[in-house]
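Q: What changes when zinc ion is included in the input?
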Amino acid sequence: MGVARGAQGTHGGPSRSANFWGPVGPSGPCGPCSELYFDRGPDHGCSAPDCRPGCDCDRYVEYWNLVFTGYNMGEDRQLTTLPAQNIDTGMGLERVAALKQGVDAVFLTDQFRPLIELGEEIADKRYGENRQVDVALRVLADHSRAMSFLVADGVLPSNEGRGYVLRRIIRRAARFSRSAGMEPPFLERFAARTIDLMGGTYPELHERQEVILRTVGSEEDRFNRTLDQGLVLVEEAIGRAEEEGSKVFPGSIAFQLHDTYGFPSRSPARSWRSRTDTRYGRLRLVDERPAQAGATGAERGRCLAGGHRPLCPCHRSSHGVQGIRA
Ligand SMILES: [Zn+2]
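A: The predicted holo structure follows.
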């Protein structure tokens, strides 16, 4: 059943093999790890002669991991022994559920499937037939649970801290749903199904049902209005570029789309609506001319060049209330 991969280098210092975990950032606690796999049998495998745990195919499912946190990695990448060592052990509850229920993925277990089915119904598409749709349905199923529980715990969408995390989750769900061809609004239905599905075990979902539905619905509404405004800008910019015979999407508009409307920094139109995709695709990425207000030109240039991260400092101060951010 289980196939354990032994921790390597537990004697005489660690070996930095695949069986070494961490640190999360450039420095911090880390150590050797061992992974437990479930062998689902050759029928699920790729038949390659070197197929074994860790292979990209579906045969071996990692369902448990133990990290022997014994070291601290410094900024200079040197390891020192931690004064208090521990073993961090974690089993993937939903992976075990998938194995017990004999399904191929956690999204097909009884705690996800009803949400996937709701997505199938709204999009009028089947799970498992198109990768882009599958990704969207999985994002929706996962984010529906996250947003419902966050609101149940008292979090409301905002531009800071946990409220910002919630805002991003709701807007990301809404954005992916468009790529599955869903016509909004519908996130309330996903929240309602989450409450039906999990409210028996988590009564706070029922107790906070009204505020969950209202919060999710109004945030989706705000997002859609912002998105539509941004798409008008995209269309106008593309139209102007075509008129001028330019092959370049203006960097100042790209920055505005990103900074004010939260569009992805690399491709303001791509992944939003296919009708703009084709036209946008004829243009080169974006130019890197700095826009006017806020951060310095150098910072803007870096962001438009695609180095942006969600908490990139050049966006924090001036980010609009309507931010979507990918
Ligand atoms: Zn394989």
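Observations recorded in class: Residues 68 and 87 are 5 Å apart (CA to CA).
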